[in-house]
Fold this protein.
Amino acid sequence: MTPDATGADAVIDAVTAVLLIVGAVMSLGAAIGLLRFPDLMSRMHAATKPQVLGLFLVLAAIGLQMREWWVWPILAVAWIFQLLTVPVSAHMVGRAGYRTKHLHPELLSIDELEAVVLRAAGQRAAEKAQADPTTPHTGNGGSPGPHGANGRPSA
């Protein structure tokens, strides 16, 4: 049997086609942004925002085209998984990029993390100096080695 080309099936097919095209364009935009943007932060933005929306639109089109209600919870789980993992992975990439200086500071309007990083580095240095001021510098960052400062193995 062929579906009725003039009824509700035609509307569902048209909506599905629009959702697929817009979702594909969003995903294509994310891919182009990954290749063309100049620095890590803008690439990270391109990899997350349009990709999640593009995936949502494609999954919605699949759900409409299947015309079965049982498929919607499965598609929702796939989209929720993306919503939970994409921000975490983007955060980790951004954090690693910031720590390894793979960013262009001149492209940032405000670097809110710089003061926090400098303060943490200063506190860490002060804690090391207070912990054992008599330890001679060994050339390995002040670490006494596999044994503690008292010669016993450290836990």
Remarks:
- The two ends are 73 Å apart (CA to CA).
